[in-house]
Design goal:
By secondary structure, the chain is of the alpha/beta class. It is built from 11 helices and 10 strands. The protein is 48% helix and 16% strand. The strands form 2 sheets. The protein has a 6-stranded mixed β-sheet, with helices on both faces. The protein has a 4-stranded mixed β-sheet with strand order 4-6-8-9. The protein is globular and about 65 Å long. The mean pLDDT is 97. The structure holds ligand LHQ.
Length: 263
């Protein structure tokens, strides 16, 4: 597939997706969603890809849904927003959350609406100090989507999540970091080297264990402690049968760095 709205590359085990409509702050269109689906299909199929890095081109990360085709009342009335979510956003968020590989997000600028919630759906979120997060939905009479009503309260607690969703206030990367919404904030010029370094590191780690960690954390949000203990038993059994487990223990005992294959 020839991509127009994203850039896609794979190198040294890391697939990099760059949202690439900088003039429109990388806002989502149907075409961009189609390209993202195609890129994630490649990522899922290609065993040599062991980490994904998502970022945005230009001064923004992503301003959510492209609203420009909604200028007329007719266009707004015709659109079934639930259908748009089913067709595009829900598939994207489910793909990221269930992908058995780590997904790092480098938020290089403003992340608004579904753009903010795309970032928060990723496993590890880094941001430039000049970046910001806006639950912009209420400003146009909508509710947070792309998983925001699920992700936000779990990350920052319901007091902050509700206020963010109802006020639509812009919060800085520093604030997002202080509230535990993201992993780290970096000076703008160091964001990409840091994010790339982290992605390259993750691509050399025990991929199956990382995927199982992700599965366990996903399930923990609705499991009881008993269910979670059972799940840990089951997933640890699987982890214990990977080559990387044997490699990790052998490397530790022989005081050498582990060379994980992802198998
Ligand atoms: C844009 C956009 C944009 C088009 C900036 N669209 N052009 C929604 C509906 C349907 C189904 C399901 O889900 C959703 C989910 C959602 O995501 S709803 C939320 C949609 N997003 C927003 O409401 C955010 C709209 N954008 C903004 O509030 C501002 O642009 C932010 C705060 C993100 C950035 O502000 P500034 O830094 O001042 O930039 P700007 O506003 O000047 O934008 C730069 C350009 O990008 C500008 O184009 P122009 O041709 O005038 O230079 C904007 O029109 C364009 N742009 N967001 N979502």
């Amino acid at each position: 597939m020839n991509y127009q709205s994203i850039l896609f590359s794979a190198d040294k085990g890391v697939a990099t997706i760059t949202l690439n409509r900088p003039d429109k702050l990388n806002s989502f269109t149907d075409d961009m969603h189609g390209e993202l689906r195609d890129a994630f299909k490649t990522i899922a199929k290609d065993e040599t890809i062991r980490c994904v890095l998502i970022t945005g081109a230009g001064r923004g990360f992503c301003a959510g849904q492209d609203l420009s085709h909604l200028a007329s009342e007719d266009a707004r009335a015709e659109q079934d927003l639930g259908e748009t979510l089913d067709k595009n956003y829900n598939r994207l968020i489910r793909t990221i959350r269930s992908l058995p590989k780590p997904v790092v997000c480098a938020v290089n600028g403003v992340a608004a609406g579904a753009g903010a919630n795309l970032a928060l759906a990723c496993d590890i979120v880094l941001a430039a100090r000049s970046a910001s997060f806006i639950q912009a939905f209420c400003k146009i009479g909508l509710i947070p989507d792309a998983g925001g009503t699920w992700t936000l309260p779990r990350l920052v607690g319901s007091a902050r999540a509700l206020a963010l969703a109802m006020l639509g206030d812009k919060i800085s990367a520093e604030q997002a970091h202080d509230w535990g919404m993201i992993w780290k904030a970096f000076d703008d010029e160091t964001l990409m080297p840091e994010a790339q370094g982290m992605a390259l590191h993750l691509a050399t780690q025990p991929t199956q264990a990382l995927a199982l960690i992700k599965r366990a954390f996903n399930a923990s949000t609705s499991n009881t402690l008993d269910q979670q203990l059972d799940l840990e038993r089951d997933l640890q059994t699987i982890a214990g049968r990977t080559s990387d487990y044997h490699e990790g223990v052998d490397a530790f005992l022989n005081k050498r760095p582990a060379e994980f294959s992802g198998k």
